[in-house]
């Protein structure tokens, strides 16, 4: 006799073939769906994870992080070596953003304070490009890895200190605020309406890129992504043939230009924007934190005064202090400045530190090798004479 067939589920056999296949699919999906529903219900009944405990305040002497934005090497390292040598190594750290591939070692610097202090993965910086801001952020990020760093000073490779280490350290650590040059310049046309709504026009600010940040503000700048994204897209310097002719040594010095083909008459319609003069200032403005900063800079710059025509782009560049213009009389004149006038805002900023009147500037730029040598020889910073200090250079 033929073997009896195994009976199938009567309800399934009763379905037409097409509906029978859909029924099998529903059965296969039902089990994982039920599991996901049960898991979601379980998670809703669990208490939220406890917030991480607040970070313990750093115990010990805080450090000042000196952050150098350099083209390649540090031509004034001999002066900074003298400045740091007269300080306490527990109270400072050094970081350098230099050209990719450049290494600070015995062959490129005579100062041990700079050996190996270049960032491991620098970016190729282009003048007037967001890469300048990216390099600054990288310096702040590297310095934040050391919890002892409490003050962060951004410096150029042509900056010099105006005071000895002890005075500089005390000044910086006494300030509860960041020191960020920031103002509204209604005469300039760098703001691009396409930056809104991330950056409203009334939050657009301008100022010197040479700033000092306290730790929480350095973290704020490093964590920012939204404002930087807008700057990458809408804040770029328009490079014209005339501007290239004004900076003939730019490529030799390590900065490169992004060239644009600009039709005649179009340049005036574009938004000439220099990111490093706006980025940090605009972050504080958009975050509503301007009350937490001293709205000035610590670094003195003498701008070209050969013409008063704002259309003359030669006035955009600082003058260089040579040997004869770096005498004690010139340096003392800078050190005596106790206020800054912001004519575009009809504001006078009287320089203070924690409510106490102080000199405005701790640093100055741009100094040539000879200008820095004059400062060292004069000994006005409480430094040793150059003949003793230059043995290792």
TrEMBL record:
Q: Which InterPro entries match?
A: BC10-like, Glyco_trans_14
Q: So which residues are the signal peptide here? A: 1-45
Pfam (any one): Branch
Keyword check for Transcription, yes or no.
no
Under what name is this protein listed? Core-2/I-branching beta-1,6-N-acetylglucosaminyltransferase family protein
Q: What topology does it adopt in the membrane?
A: Single-pass type II membrane protein
- What's in the GO CC field? membrane
Localization, per the record, is: Membrane
Keyword list (alphabetical) reads: Glycoprotein, Glycosyltransferase, Membrane, Signal, Transferase
Organism of origin is: Lolium multiflorum
Lineage, highest ranks first: Eukaryota, Viridiplantae, Streptophyta, Embryophyta, Tracheophyta
Q: Which GO terms describe its molecular function?
A: glycosyltransferase activity
């Amino acid at each position: 006799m033929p073997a009896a067939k195994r009976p199938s589920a009567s309800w399934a056999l009763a379905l037409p073939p097409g509906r029978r296949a859909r029924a099998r699919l529903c059965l296969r999906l039902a089990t994982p769906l039920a599991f996901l529903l049960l898991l979601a219900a379980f998670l809703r009944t669990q208490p939220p994870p406890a917030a991480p405990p607040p970070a313990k305040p750093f115990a010990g002497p805080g450090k000042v992080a000196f952050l150098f934005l350099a083209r390649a090497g540090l031509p004034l390292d001999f002066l900074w070596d003298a400045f740091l040598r007269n300080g306490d190594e527990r109270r400072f750290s050094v970081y350098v953003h230099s050209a990719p591939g450049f290494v600070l070692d015995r062959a490129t610097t005579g100062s041990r304070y700079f050996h190996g202090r270049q960032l491991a993965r620098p970016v190729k910086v282009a003048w007037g490009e967001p890469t300048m801001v990216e390099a600054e952020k990288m310096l702040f990020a590297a310095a934040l890895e050391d919890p002892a760093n409490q003050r962060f000073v951004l410096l150029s490779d042509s900056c010099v200190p105006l005071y000895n280490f002890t005075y500089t350290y005390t000044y910086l650590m006494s300030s509860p605020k960041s020191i960020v040059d920031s103002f509204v310049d209604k005469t300039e046309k760098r703001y691009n309406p396409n930056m809104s709504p991330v950056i409203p026009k009334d939050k657009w600010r301008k100022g010197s890129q040479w700033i000092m940040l306290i730790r929480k503000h350095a973290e704020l700048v490093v964590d920012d992504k939204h404002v930087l994204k807008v700057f990458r897209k809408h804040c770029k310097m328009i490079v014209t043939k005339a501007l290239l002719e004004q900076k003939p040594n730019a490529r030799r010095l390590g900065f490169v230009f992004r060239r644009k083909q600009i039709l005649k008459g179009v340049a005036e319609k574009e938004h000439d924007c220099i990111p490093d003069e706006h980025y940090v200032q605009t972050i504080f403005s958009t975050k509503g934190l301007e009350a937490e900063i001293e709205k000035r800079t610590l670094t003195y710059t003498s701008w070209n005064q050969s013409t008063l025509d704002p259309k003359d782009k030669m006035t955009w560049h600082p003058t260089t202090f040579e040997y004869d213009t770096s005498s004690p009389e010139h340096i003392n004149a800078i050190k005596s400045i106790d206020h800054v006038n912001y004519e575009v805002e009809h504001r006078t900023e009287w320089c203070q530190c924690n409510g106490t009147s102080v000199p405005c500037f701790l640093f100055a730029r741009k100094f040539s090798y000879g200008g820095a040598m004059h400062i060292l020889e004069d000994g006005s910073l409480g430094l040793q004479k150059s003949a003793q200090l230059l043995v290792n250079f």
